[in-house]
Each structure stands twice: as C-alpha cells, then as structure tokens.
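Same chain as my last thread, 142 residues:
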Amino acid sequence: MAQLASLATLIGAGASIYGNIRQGQAMRAQAAAARAAAEERARQLAIQNEAEARARRETLARTIAAARARFAAGGIRPDEGSAAALLAGLAADAAAAQSESEALFRSRLAAGRRSLLQPDLSFLPFVRAGQTFGAALRSLLD
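reply #2:
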C-alpha cells in the first residue's frame, strides 16, 4: 500500500510539473504576442511622428517663402532687420513645436513599454516545477 502512495505522489508531481511547464509556455507565447504588438505600435508611432515632422517642415518652408516674397515685393530685404527677425522667429516657433512633438512621441513610446521592475515570468514555471518535484521527493523520503 505504501508503494501505491509513493507512486501516486510521483504521478501527482509529474502532472504538476507538466502543468507548470505548459503554463510557462503559454506565458512566453503571450509575452511574445504582447512584444510584437508593442513593436508594431512603436513603428506606427514613428511613422506618424515622421509624417507630422515632414508636414511641419513643409509648412515652415512655405510660410518662410511667402513671407520672403511679401517682404521682397514691399521693397524690404528679407535678410536684414525686422524681416530677418520675423523669419528667425518663425523658425524658432517651428523648432519648439518639433521639440514638443518629439517629447510627446517619446512619452507615447514609454507608455507602451513594460517596467524593468516587472518580472518576465518566463523562468517562474520552472522554479515552481522544481519546488513541486522537491516537495514530492521530501514526501517520499519521509
């Protein structure tokens, strides 16, 4: 009868170890899917950020060209005095907007990133399996 109890303990430990390993595999697959989704979101955010930056550069170039044309049509040299200050101000405003956009982009990327303090859980099922096996061995030796 004692042999049946030992055999039942070993079968129970084996089933528990198998369950822990399957749980680990499922967790790794889920983590890989989450990682792929996060990478795709980061790629989409980068594309969107680049498109916005390109649109901002084009708008700035058109605005500066129009201002230069107006100054030249009025007989004002666009490279001197208040005209140059106005054009420099437009460029500075565009640079500030780009800086804010980059900060927003970085915060969006960081929002989708997991914390480094959060455990990966990929090794945890193996540790649990080892604990289960150790408990089964202790019960057999007692």
